[in-house]
Queue: 3 jobs
Job 1
Amino acid sequence: MKRNLYFLFLITIFLTFTLSCETFNAAAGKKTLKEQDSISAPFDEYLTERVWRLAGCYFENGLYVQLDANLTSSRINFFYNGKFQATTGITNYEGTWKHKKNSSFKFQITGKKLIDPSNTIGKSFDSSFEKNLINTDRIEITKNEIKFYAKEGELLLRFIRL
């Protein structure tokens, strides 16, 4: 009787493990996290359809700082005609952006308007934001975020989708 129970127990465990495994074809058909995160729409279309909120900024002292989720005033909008509008909450920026396949990503700031001159604490953040826009050389985009990199590969700015 004990042997039959042991045998039944082992068969149950064997069947449980065997049936819980995926087949090779099912496992091969799954997408990796990077593939799931990649965008399906054309680059320009995906970039311009959304408002992007700032989530991280590289400062002049060499530190990259993740920003608080409550910092909702810093954002960037891209337009189909190659223009962009960005704001830090202190200064509004306008300009143009250019991106060609397999080439660099460039910003050119054509206008700045100071909207909060009384904010002296955020001046270093504001100047870092502007320099990071100017020094952007490469962009990496996924479903939920865009990252701007310098020529050296250093992460300058990170925006998340609203």
Note: The chain has two domains: 2-29, 42-161.
Job 2
Amino acid sequence: MERDIKITVGGVDCQLTALARKVLTCKPPTEKPPLEGGLQPEVVVKIGNISFTAGQLSYDSPSLTSSVVMVILGCVAAMLICLICLAIMRKTNSHQRQMKYLKTQMDTIEMKVATECKEAFAELQTSLNQYTADLPLGTPIVPFLEYKDYCARVLFPNNPHNHPVLRDLEVDSQKAGAIEAGLREFHKLLMNKTFFLTMVRTMESNKYFLGKDRVYVGSLVMVVLQEKMGYCTEMLKQLLRELIDRTVEKKFQPKILFRRSESVAERMLAAWFTFLMHDYLRNFAGKRLYDLYWGIKQQMEKGPQDALTLEARYSLSEEKLLRATFEYKELTIFIAADSMTYTQPDMPVRVLDCDTITQVKEKCLDAKYRTVPYSDRPNANDLDLEWRTGINGRMVLQDIDTTSRVEPGGWKRLNTLAHYNVPNNAVLMLVATQSSLYNLSLLSERSEKSTLSLKNSPTLSRPWVGTNSSSNSKDAEGQKLFHLVKPTEHGPSENQEKMVTEIYLTRLLMMKGTLQKFINDLLESIFSTASRSAPLPAAIKYMFDFMDEQALEHGITDAEVVHAWKSNALPLRFWVNLIKNPHFVFDIQKPTKVEGCLSVVAQTLMDACSTQDHQLTKDSPSSKLLFAKDMYQYRDWVDSYYSDIARLPSISDQDMAALLNEESRVHRGQFHVFSALNELYKYLDQYKDPIMDALEHNEHAQASRLPGRLQANKTVAEMKPITGDLTANISKIK
């Protein structure tokens, strides 16, 4: 029983709290009972009359234990705090040292880039000044194309040299009279407003009238109407009104209007500016565009450029940046005169030892024929490069020959000057391919001494005829070709490691800094309303006022919409096209090698015309980051340009008509209108039935008897241009 059990601790009762078969639990006194000698109290258990001692209960001093624990914890905490403070201070100092180091490095890189930019620009400017100063008196500095060639390249970029509108129409002599009469009647029909508008509307309403057809028809129409620019402008404005009406009615995005040639009117507008901006190009802005092209080309040629991938050490385009490490040397070679008498001094040319033979030939041609338009120069593929080493010693250098180095994996490297061990100050000569001789003994110890004619030369087959090919080029034996770097998908070249782009981004900065003035000069000339050398073309003011009027008519109050129309119509459709394709304006080689840089400049112009403020991050395209600081200034130029034009006095229809008539008079006869009519009639014949139906349901067409006139024009459909002997030329519309 619980009442029979008693527990004491040092004579003091211990309250029983739990009772089990083998266990007793009690609550001892909270304080140690007083005992003599400081002994620990004994625990005595009494059950009835039985008493026994369970042992001693030890009491520790609570105050002493707490003090010790607090002291220990305090010491530990203090030590931790000290360690944390030391770590923070050390990390802070390390971070500050690192930031200071990085800032120093950035300042050093920035100063280095700035210095390189200044030196490179000064060298470019000096070279340009020397180039112009050494030209013979009266030689044009800029190789502008003639008006006809310029227009043909813009209007028909896929066939600018042999398009039918550039030559007389050849037809069967027996049908020449009927065909000429039919085309003259077709021309008269096009001069009728009702017929012209009905024809264009009907064609565009057909779902099978594709975008390329709209572009081509728009170009042909402008060629036909080029000698009637007043009538052409009237028809263009009417088609633009209808295009704007459709855009507003169908609630399309009005800002994208004129951005793409999705209608005949949009193509006609681009061609209209092409015709009327020609004088402004020749007298003012064209020189700035050529300076930019020339500067890019010269700067890129100072460093290596892969002849196949077109990646270059110096570039504005990250995609066309050469990301490989290798050594190269700059050489000065001398091009011997054509005459065997050597009375003319040799011409020095700066090249690189890593240049392919074709690259060297092109640089030599640029130096030798710098005053000659590209179309009048010899082609590099029609010439051989001979290395002269003495009175009779000579060797033909080729991109590919029997000495070409073949690497594991079937890769063959294009030959370079370094491959032939051509030294500095070497004398070379450009000779016609069929007359070249070379001495195989000059290939060091690779062959015995013997002089062979070209017919016995291993280069006779000429499997390689240039280096402007794709990265997947192969030679006649099926071996894969490469120049500086192999295509990325096949891995890096031997001893050449493809590095991350960021390491080489300073080259983009250097290239941009070098060309900054050329880019600024071009954009200033594009967005200039007042110039001493060339006033603002009247066509720009006239068309921009027309767009403002259309916006008011349709209740468009958003200024960004009209801003977008003007930007799409002129800078984006006209200037961007010429920046990307300077060979449309100048008699130069197609700018394949520099197209990456030109695309970056064109994109910068497009960004300057945009009203969208894009937030740039570290992941933004490098082309946008390069010009991020300049973009605010460029956009101010664009805004000022549009506002200044709006404040200029309006051009009356009478004054504009006089200007347009003068334009037609000056450039009359540039194109073969009969040939253009012949091309255009093919589309008329294709859509003849719906056009006839539309004319029959049009009161004005009925009043002018247009359906009958079109029906009587069937003779043209039977014409068959031929190339036989019995031909007749149909040349001019009188």
Note: Residues 327-435+472-483 form a domain with the Ubiquitin-like (UB roll) fold (CATH 3.10.20.90).
Job 3
Amino acid sequence: MRTVRLITCNDAMQAHIFQGALENEGIESLLHNENLSSLLKSCVSNISGVDIFVYEKDYERALQVLRDNQSFPEDLKCCPYCGSADITFKLRSDRRMRAACAAVLSLLVMAPPGDNHWTYKCNRCKALFDKPVSADYKREEESRI
């Protein structure tokens, strides 16, 4: 059977979580580039990302499983607190010195500086958060209440 690439994850841990979600639904998957992502952490995902492959016949079902689990970054555009889509990606104010040191050190040792110096900020409610959510997620939260 033919396999197709489903998604590229930023790291092996995220890929294993998605692979577990697929397994729970009875969808077999295969990880590619798992070891390189550990060596080149914080590099562009096209270089070091972990690809998840599924059988072609399971592709549509696998896409739906990942959508149900809020797994597509392009769908994550809203504040988890107020649901606003007016969010910005900015450097954390408490980590500016740390980010500058990481940038200088990364230039000296020719290694990526890492990505834990950044945060999202909602321009409507002024909340800071690590990861945005999809509009569907916010609607589901409100319907449960």
Note: DSSP finds six helices and six strands in the chain.
